[in-house]
C-alpha cells in the first residue's frame, strides 16, 4: 500500500504535457498564482496543493548560463468541505444533510474533499493543464468523494472534461425572464462573460429585437437592485450587472473515487 506522500508523487505519464510534471505543491505556489483567479480571498483550509512547474530555461538564462528556477504555472488546491450544500444533498440523496452538525462534519471530513481553486498562469492557458490537474487529483484522491463549485463552469467546463459530473442549480425566478429574452435574441447567458462582445451582438440585431432586449434587460436591472437610480442605466452598466448576477449561479461537480 503506497504512502500518502508516494501517492502524491506517483504521476501517470499522461500527466506530463510537454515535459511538465505534476508534483506536490506548497502555499507559496498558490500565492504566486492567486492574482490570476477570479475569486477573491483564500480558501478556509488547504489540505493538499498540486503544482505544475516549468523548469524550461528562458532564452536569457541560456545565454547567460544562469541556473533555471522552476516556476509554478498551474496550481490546484483541495480543502475540507463546507458543512452544508444543497446541490451536494441533491447529488448524494441527502447523505449528509440529515445529520446533526458534529457527526455531519466528522463524516464529511472523512469522506469528501473539495477542489477549491484551480489556477493557471495566463501564458500557459489553452494547454489543457486544468483538466490534467483535476484528473490527477481524482486519480490520487484518498477520500470517497471529490467535489467542486465553479461559477465559471459554463464558460470553461474543465471539471466535466476531467471526469466529474455536473449538477446545475435552476436559475432564480427573478432572472428567468432576462435569460429568456437573451436567448430569444440568440444570445446565450454564458456569453455575458464578455460584455463588450455581447453589446456588439445586441447592436447588430434588427431594431425590433434590439429594442425588445434592451427593454427587458433594463426592466431586469431595475428589479434586481437598480430602482434607486435616477437616470436610465447605460447598456454597459446593465450588461456588467447581468454578468455579475446571471453568471453567479455556480455549477456543482462531484466524482466518486472508487479506488479510494
Provide the low-confidence segments as ranges: 1-16
Q: Round the Cα radius of gyration to an integer and report it.
A: 22 Å
Mean residue pLDDT:
84
Class by SSE composition: alpha+beta
What is the tally of helical segments? 11
User: For the record, what CATH class of the largest domain applies?
Assistant: Alpha Beta
CATH topology of the largest domain: Aminopeptidase
Which word captures the global form? globular
Strand content: 15-25%
Query: Please, what is the CATH homologous superfamily of the largest domain?
Result: Gcn5-related N-acetyltransferase (GNAT)
Question: Which CATH architecture of the largest domain is right?
Answer: 3-Layer(aba) Sandwich
Q: What is the distance, rounded to the nearest whole angstrom, between the alpha carbons of the first and last residues?
A: 12 Å
Strand arrangement in the largest pleated sheet: 1-2-3-4-5-7-6
Order of helices and strands: HEHEHEHHEHEHEHHHHE
Sheet having the most strands: 7 strands, mixed
Helical content stands at 40-55%
* Total beta-strand segments: 7
In total, how many domains does the architecture comprise? Answer: 2
Amino acid at each position: 500500500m503506497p504512502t500518502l506522500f508516494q501517492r502524491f508523487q506517483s504521476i501517470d505519464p499522461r500527466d506530463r504535457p510537454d515535459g511538465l510534471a505534476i508534483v506536490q505543491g506548497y502555499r507559496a505556489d498558490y500565492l504566486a498564482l492567486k492574482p490570476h483567479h477570479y475569486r477573491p480571498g483564500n480558501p478556509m483550509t488547504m489540505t493538499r496543493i498540486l503544482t505544475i512547474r516549468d523548469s524550461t530555461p528562458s532564452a536569457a538564462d541560456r545565454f547567460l548560463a544562469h541556473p533555471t528556477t522552476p516556476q509554478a504555472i498551474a496550481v490546484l488546491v483541495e480543502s475540507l468541505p463546507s458543512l452544508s450544500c444543497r446541490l451536494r444533498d441533491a447529488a448524494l440523496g441527502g447523505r449528509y444533510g440529515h445529520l446533526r452538525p458534529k457527526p455531519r462534519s466528522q463524516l464529511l471530513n472523512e469522506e469528501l474533499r473539495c477542489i477549491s481553486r484551480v489556477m493557471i498562469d495566463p501564458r500557459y492557458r489553452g494547454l489543457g493543464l486544468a483538466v490534467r490537474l483535476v484528473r490527477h487529483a481524482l486519480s490520487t484522491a484518498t477520500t470517497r468523494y471529490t467535489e467542486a463549485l465553479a461559477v465559471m463552469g459554463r464558460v470553461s467546463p474543465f471539471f466535466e472534461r476531467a471526469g466529474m459530473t455536473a449538477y446545475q442549480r435552476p436559475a432564480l425566478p427573478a432572472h428567468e425572464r432576462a435569460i429568456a429574452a437573451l436567448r430569444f435574441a440568440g444570445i446565450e447567458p454564458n456569453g455575458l462573460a464578455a460584455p463588450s462582445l455581447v453589446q456588439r451582438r445586441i447592436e447588430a440585431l434588427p431594431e425590433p429585437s434590439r429594442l425588445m432586449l434592451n427593454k427587458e434587460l433594463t426592466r431586469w436591472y431595475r428589479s434586481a437592485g437598480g430602482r434607486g437610480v435616477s437616470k436610465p442605466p447605460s447598456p454597459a452598466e446593465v450588461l456588467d450587472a447581468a454578468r455579475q448576477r446571471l453568471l453567479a449561479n455556480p455549477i456543482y461537480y462531484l466524482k466518486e473515487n472508487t479506488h479510494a
